[in-house]
Design a protein that fits this description.
This protein folds into five domains: 2-126, no CATH class; 138-211, Immunoglobulins (Immunoglobulin-like); 226-322, OB fold (Dihydrolipoamide Acetyltransferase, E2P) (Beta Barrel); 329-482, no CATH class; 487-526. Strand 45 (487-494) and strand 46 form a beta hairpin. Helices cover 5% and strands 48% of the residues.
Length: 527
């Protein structure tokens, strides 16, 4: 006989049990017994009671989760009693202590939850013979994926003997090892354990501990791979790596139209979603504003959590590596500007300009403001120093402010320099091509076109006092555009690539040369 009731009706009142019904047997199903059935199990038997969870009108069925039996509004949960016993009362213990009770016993009870709930214990009364029960033993570690060996402890109620197996057979009075001390788990192992009191044997507690060798270890040098992610426990934090394919949508698909709040990372049909939280980091790495990032392999720091429709999502992305670089020329200097915070990479010194002296036409550079591994705030113009090379850096989600004392400005894209009543300076050589500093890039210090991700010096006219240029604290060369009186110095080549003039003013590049075609500043020019 089957009856159907809803939790909504059940939580409104608790029916008084009829005096005609004899409550002879009590069963307590514990959280450890529930969890031992395995995550996402929706068809299981405990102490003879058969539980079946179905979707009903919900998207997922009533099922075992990491914290007990989870139900959802619209689910169907069927409970069948053992040995033709009649269920007369059920108490679902959780935060709301939902109850089911009936004055008429039923062998099969079908329940329709109307709310989401997590049940940590179930107490069932039937009309069967009153029997003494033994609670199932508890395990000190939840089943899951492990990389390092550990000691497993099994506990049971006072006076009970514990027997366990590791060969997938069922422990019983006559089968299994007697537990006496912690068990070393150092390889993939399935533990089954029962508690025994006299002739009474509890239901089986079961857990499988899976040991794997991951390709990565969560560091930037060796990030977790796409294959690693599915084996990691929820909440695992670290560096991950993969290829940006686009934006993610439910079903493991790539969205037809990119969005800026996530990436779809993967290869072929194996795709996971990566969350990009609102802020400077999202602005810097999203594929709506940066479509060229699609197809690039990238590393990112975050936490494995359920995201969209998968347990293998990455949320809380706070750092990204592999999309931006610093470039330093053979001369050993350059400037940089970004609209996002970044971590100073190894081998690069970062300086900010804190003072300009017209008395001796020099700048004061603070090379200690941002050391290796420290974070440079977004929108901070900086001077770079280091050996020639390309240095990839980590984009960070920091929202720290740029230092007020910094006199360097910049632009993300190629743009005209900005500043009210200012003179503008570009990193270059002096007129003699000897001393490194910031010098006028246009006549009389007027605004000029600044390169993408480059920094420049903008000084109020009352501070600059018409000074043409400022040297740095130390002499050097940059290998960057040389400037003389506001004009670039260029080399001139024949059409065959032969150098005929070196470092001359661009507007005088062809003076004294015979008629023909020349290469000036990378362009063909006819004289």
């Amino acid at each position: 006989m089957k009856t159907r009731l809803s939790f909504k009706a059940l939580t409104c009142f608790l029916m008084l049990f009829s005096a005609q019904v004899l409550f002879a047997a009590e069963y307590i199903i514990t959280k450890s017994e529930l969890i031992a059935q395995g995550k996402e199990s929706s068809d299981f038997t405990i102490q003879g009671f058969h539980f079946v969870g179905e979707n009903g009108t919900a998207n997922v069925p009533a099922r075992i989760w990491t914290d007990g039996l989870r139900t959802y509004a619209g689910n169907i949960l069927t409970i069948t009693a053992p040995n033709d016993e009649l269920i007369t009362a059920i108490e679902f213990t959780n935060g709301e202590k939902m109850n089911w009770s009936s004055s008429n016993g039923q062998n099969i009870v079908e329940i329709n939850p109307c709310i989401k709930a997590t049940v940590s214990q179930i107490r069932i009364l039937t009309n069967g013979e009153d029997t003494e029960n033994v609670a199932s033993p508890s395990l000190s570690a939840e089943e899951g994926i492990y990389q390092n060996p550990f000691e497993l402890t099994i506990t049971a109620e006072e006076g009970a003997i514990i027997k366990y197996t590791t060969d997938d057979t069922e422990p019983s009075l006559n089968n299994g090892e007697v537990y006496s001390s912690p068990i070393t788990i150092d390889k993939t192992t399935t533990i089954k354990a029962v508690a025994i009191k006299g002739d009474l044997v509890s239901s089986v507690t079961k857990a499988t501990y899976t040991f794997i060798t991951l390709e990565g270890n969560g560091s930037l040098e060796k990030p977790y791979t796409l294959n690693d992610i599915k084996y990691l426990n929820a909440g695992t934090e670290g560096w991950f790596t993969g290829t940006i394919l686009g934006s993610y949508e439910n079903g493991g698909n790539i969205a037809s139209k990119p969005i800026n709040s996530n990436w779809a990372i993967g290869t072929g049909d194996d795709i996971i979603p990566v969350q990009l939280g609102a802020g400077p980091l999202r602005n810097a790495v999203n594929i709506v504003d940066n479509s060229s990032f699609i197809g690039k392999e990238v590393s990112f720091y975050g936490t494995k959590e359920r995201y969209f429709d998968t347990d293998n999502g990455i949320k809380g992305t706070s750092q990204v590596f592999g999309l931006y670089d610093l470039n330093i020329t053979e001369a050993g200097y350059s400037t940089y500007y970004a609209n996002h915070a970044f971590v100073v990479p190894t081998g690069v010194e970062i300086g900010i300009v804190t003072n300009a002296s017209t008395a001796n036409a020099t700048l004061t550079i603070d090379w200690s403001a941002y050391k290796e591994g420290e974070i440079v705030p977004a929108n901070t113009g900086v001077l770079l120093k280091g050996n020639e090379g390309t240095y990839s850096y980590i984009v960070d989600d920091s929202e720290a402010k740029t230092p007020a004392e910094n006199l360097l400005k910049g632009s993300v894209a190629e743009a005209t320099t900005e500043g009210e009543n200012c003179l503008f300076y570009k990193l270059s050589y002096d007129n003699n091509g000897e001393n490194l500093g910031f010098y006028w890039a246009a006549e009389n210090g007027a605004a000029f076109t600044n390169g993408a991700h480059k920094a420049y010096l903008a000084l109020p006219t009352e501070i600059a006092k018409n000074t043409r240029g400022f040297g740095l604290e130390g002499d050097g060369t940059t290998g960057i555009d040389q400037i003389v009186n506001g004009q670039a110095l260029v080399n001139v080549y024949t059409i065959d690539g032969i150098l005929v003039r070196k470092q001359v003013l661009e507007n005088q590049a062809l003076n004294g040369l015979k008629k023909g075609i020349y290469i000036v500043n990378g362009k063909k020019v006819i004289k």
